[in-house]
Amino acid sequence: xxxxxQNPASFKPSVTNVFILNNAAWDVYLHSENKQxxxxxxxxxxxxxxxxxxxKIQANDLDTKAALVYKSGHPxxxxxxxxKAADLQPKxxxxxxxxxxxxxxxxxxxxEEN
Length: 114
Description:
This protein has one domain (13-113): Serine Threonine Protein Phosphatase 5, Tetratricopeptide repeat, CATH 1.25.40.
């Protein structure tokens, strides 16, 4: 998978662009083993969180960031990020909690979600 040199700052703030960047980052998570691509995707997510601060979108972005951080080899940081996502969605956090448990067990989540 090739990650283009798209500068996320060129995206105008909108919910649509937040979802585009999140989906692109998720694709990197699912299909790339390249550490540089994963780092770039994490930067995209950091940028999307500046564009929209609603709890639901923030939770989705944090979930994507946690997945990327986990895949990059930092499980403890990923678990902390995923917990923040779960805390933002207390009524619907079951999926986040399950993902945290899988991270603690060291499972390769991207193989299941692909």
